[in-house]
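ARCHIVE RECORD
Type: protein–small molecule complex
Small molecule: uridine-5'-diphosphate
Source of inputs: curated submission
Record status: active
Notes field left blank by submitter.
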Amino acid sequence: MVIPTKPHATLLASPGLGHLIPMVELANRLTAHHNFHVTIFVVTMEPGPNKPNLLPNQPNTLKPLYDLVVLPYVDSSAHMGPSDKIMTRLVIMMRGYVSSLRSELGSMEQNPTLLVVDLFGTEFLTLADEFNMIKYVYIPSNAWFLAQTVCVPLLDKQVKHEGPLIIPGCKRVEYDDILDPVFDPENKDYDEYVRIALDIGTADGVLVNTWEDLEPTTLFSFKNNKVLKEIFNKPVYPVGPLVRPVRPECLGEELSEWLNKQPKESVLYVSFGSGGTLSSQQTIELALGLEISQQRFIWVVRPPIEHDGAGALFHAMDGQDHMISQYLPPGFMTRTRNLGKVIPMWAPQMEILAHPSVGGFLSHCGWNSTLESLVNGVPIIAWPLYAEQNMNAALMDEEVGVAVRPKVLPTKVIVGREEIKKLINKIMVDDEGIKIRERVKEVQGYAKRALTTEGSTY
Ligand code: UDP
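STRUCTURE (tokenized, with ligand):
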């Protein structure tokens, strides 16, 4: 019999880089700081070998600190309907892998100590019971989002939700910022969201990618607010900010040289995460807004998709790099040649944000992107598109004070070039921007402190 020298944590990541990246960083933290042996199980959305660049956190020459097991692809498309939305689709995909994870766990010489799943893997928690493991849910988002989630089962399905969402002891969620499924009890996403919320309550505790100084009120309420504790009484641990380390060599020579030549904090980085897409008209307006602002920029451009802000999540976009300029206004690339850089599809985001020439981030406010902005002290123009991004944007704007937002949600209207120019100037030039910049530097300091041995994460 092998005597274990370390506790063994098994982590299960649902599809999408936004879920995998924070899980990998949790693994790194558990191995490097807490002497765990970690196995990450990864679920893929497509058949074929897992691309090694899915895990961009480690220099390729270094042996990863954890074991990685890619579960063989399971095709769940027969269980999905054409009207199924993101949450339902992700959950259905995950469901297909329960038996593979069971056999993986069953084939281990000893039961692992701990199972950690993310929001879309809560159905796997019962496996922890089968294998006598302790079980945690890791929310790769903020505590306020967790608070909204655990309160959703209390909403009456019969009553259409029409006002702000009141969460005991926490900032209320304004109507516009509430997660979509809450509005549509007829939709399968609603049932899945409620089930997920109830599943979270069966875990031994919840890890959240946040820290005490970022969300003091919400974290305090999870511990101390009587009403919230009646709704949800499991321990909530802030373990963030868990973000990828910077690897300057990922910038590449050309981008690195260009950035080195720009003045300090003069470049706006524009990107909508791994899944975000804009409509063709919005792409044009954004291009023209960047151009008339006359601020330097790096823009990660994807082919437009109409009526689906999460377009890149489910549409294959490979091989379209060379077509990008056809979606931009005629002459844009030439006119902005000396002002900015257009990068098709995917950029080394963490490295760009860490560069001293970068002074603003126009972001969809996925939680990883938001954290990456904060740890690099970069103010945000919030442009939320789907999932809990409206909440993240509201939190950064109203609560943390490091972001500005368009007047109306970008998913409801086309944000015009003049408004875009104003938002860019607010962050990059105006006095208001200077204050926001000071504030984000302060938050950056708190973020660093959270990760020290005295910090809330440790
Ligand atoms: N990302 C990147 N380059 C890109 C787009 C995204 O490196 O061009 C990374 C980004 O740094 C972040 C992750 O992909 O770590 C996206 O996660 P996030 O939670 O921000 O958004 P999601 O993709 O889940 O909507």
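CURATOR ANNOTATION: The CA atoms of residues 278 and 304 lie 5 Å apart.
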